[in-house]
Write a structure and sequence with these properties.
There is one protein chain. This protein has two helices and two strands, in the order αββα. The protein is of the alpha+beta class and about 90 residues long. It has a domain of about 55 residues. A two-stranded antiparallel sheet has the order 1-2. The chain is globular and about 45 Å long. About 10% of the residues have low confidence.
Amino acid sequence: MLKKVKRIKLGKQVYRRLMKRVLERDGWRCRKCGSLKDLQVHHKIRRSQRGHDALGNLVTLCAYCHMAEHGQLCYAGDRTHQGIKGPEEGHPPA
């Protein structure tokens, strides 16, 4: 039987420092489209799926690509829904 591995979860201050390290590592650019605007840190393996708060599980994405990664974008004809602008430079047309 597999051992249960405890998930790493950081406190607020440590997590903020880690987010800054991720942004610096990724050159303050979205790793999908290269945008410099509205940057966010994304968990490759979601926390809800026992993803760790660790450098190797985090990547910089812009808000548009982050929402696309989570399947939260509306159909291509309505990009202003939920306040999403786009596509900006770097975003492929849907």
